[in-house]
Design a protein that fits this description.
Elements lengths: L1 H26 L8 E2 H6 L4 E3 L5 E3 L2 H10 L9 E2 L1 E6 L6 E4 L3 H11 L4 E4 L2 E5 H10 L4 E6 L4
Parallel strand pairs: 5-9
Antiparallel strand pairs: 1-4, 2-3, 5-6, 6-8, 7-8
Length: about 150
């Protein structure tokens, strides 16, 4: 009888986990399906990328020009946009991970200031108070996603 209960609990937990994974994927439908380099976007008449839902994410040319001023020209073909910032739900309410690589983290640090970006285990993080500032400056060239785990 006790074994039946454990099996039921495991099945229930597995089902709930699958539902949560699907919901998190749905919540992230606004994330880019593709990314483009700063150079590519600057050359486009209407700079945009497609989202996972198939919508267009149009980027503000003023933001692209701001990034072009911040980023040395020889990196324009390396900086991938939009920059994805993931809310790390397992790490508490206020921790966000900068996706991409070192270049994206350096760009965020340049926009927010060097004390805004923190590094741990080779990953770059920013805390919640900086997110509002970042989004006010780079509203169309950054996107926020949600993950339950880094893995």
């Amino acid at each position: 009888m006790l074994n039946d209960t454990r099996g039921f609990e495991k099945d229930f937990i597995d089902r709930v986990s699958r539902i949560l994974v699907r919901e998190i994927e749905r919540i992230n439908d606004h994330l880019p399906k593709e990314s483009r380099t700063l150079k590519e976007l600057l050359e486009m008449r209407e700079p945009k990328v497609l989202t996972r839902a198939g919508d267009e994410l149009i980027m503000d040319r003023r933001e692209l020009e701001l990034l072009a001023d911040i980023v040395p020209a020889h990196y324009h073909d390396k900086l991938k946009l939009p920059i994805v910032i993931l809310r790390m739900m397992e790490m508490g309410e206020g921790v966000y991970m900068i996706c991409g690589g070192d270049l994206e983290a350096r760009v965020i640090a340049k926009v927010l200031g060097p004390d805004a970006v923190h590094y741990h285990d080779g990953r770059a993080f920013v805390y919640k108070p900086y997110i509002a500032i970042l989004r006010s400056k780079l509203r169309t060239t950054t996107v926020i996603g949600f993950v339950s785990s880094i893995e």
